[in-house]
Amino acid sequence: RVKMSAEEILVRAVELGQNFCLYFDELECDALCKEKTLHRVLRNVNSQLLVVRPDLNVAAFEDVTDQEMQSGKGMHFSIHCYKTTTPLAGMPVAFSVQVENKSYYMCCERECGEMIVRFKEGEVPKEIPGESNIIFFKKTFTSCSSKAFKFEYSMEQGMFLAFEEEGYLRKLILKKLSKDEVDETMKMSL
């Protein structure tokens, strides 16, 4: 008799041996596969829209007029949702945006010991075989606020997309959050 843990182990039959014994091989968890894409604007707690300006290498929350919103330059995001085998972490998503007929994807990079949010020209992949610096876990902001979300960086637990005031800008950043803390700078609606 063999005791099994609660954790599932995926196996597949490899061959049928002597005496009709089956031999098994372990399978790895599925890669992240793109399931659907949502088209949305991202708003912060002040109802400002996230606007990406690749020419200035900046993404910031701004007050936007109706006319500017119609033109949509750098503010209409594609939110790429991926299938996952670990739903407790949240829905894995990647962000991309069109600016002047070019597509840019959001990623995070370490620079001078600090995590920086960047937008790089290119497309979001359909499949991601392992960890990726473009994946964020979409989670409800609080249990009482089901229409607002926070986005945790997949490669560093406790780091969330947020905004930070820098002069007149409310710049998009990654911010560390302790487990029980509620931080309004991380609250985003779609």
Automatic annotation (TrEMBL):
<dbReference type="InterPro" id="IPR000975">
    <property type="entry name" value="IL-1_fam"/>
</dbReference>
<dbReference type="GO" id="GO:0001819">
    <property type="term" value="P:positive regulation of cytokine production"/>
</dbReference>
<keyword id="KW-0202">Cytokine</keyword>
<dbReference type="GO" id="GO:0005615">
    <property type="term" value="C:extracellular space"/>
</dbReference>
<keyword id="KW-0963">Cytoplasm</keyword>
<dbReference type="GO" id="GO:0005125">
    <property type="term" value="F:cytokine activity"/>
</dbReference>
<comment type="subunit">
    <text>Forms a ternary complex with ligand-binding receptor subunit IL18R1 and signaling receptor subunit IL18RAP at the plasma membrane. Mature IL18 first binds to IL18R1 forming a low affinity binary complex, which then interacts with IL18RAP to form a high affinity ternary complex that signals inside the cell. Interacts with cargo receptor TMED10; the interaction mediates the translocation from the cytoplasm into the ERGIC (endoplasmic reticulum-Golgi intermediate compartment) and thereby secretion.</text>
</comment>
<dbReference type="GO" id="GO:0006954">
    <property type="term" value="P:inflammatory response"/>
</dbReference>
<dbReference type="InterPro" id="IPR015529">
    <property type="entry name" value="IL-18"/>
</dbReference>
<dbReference type="GO" id="GO:0006955">
    <property type="term" value="P:immune response"/>
</dbReference>
<dbReference type="GO" id="GO:0005737">
    <property type="term" value="C:cytoplasm"/>
</dbReference>
<keyword id="KW-0964">Secreted</keyword>
<dbReference type="GO" id="GO:0071222">
    <property type="term" value="P:cellular response to lipopolysaccharide"/>
</dbReference>
<protein>
    <recommendedName>
        <fullName>Interleukin-18</fullName>
    </recommendedName>
</protein>
<dbReference type="InterPro" id="IPR008996">
    <property type="entry name" value="IL1/FGF"/>
</dbReference>
<dbReference type="GO" id="GO:0019221">
    <property type="term" value="P:cytokine-mediated signaling pathway"/>
</dbReference>
<comment type="similarity">
    <text>Belongs to the IL-1 family.</text>
</comment>
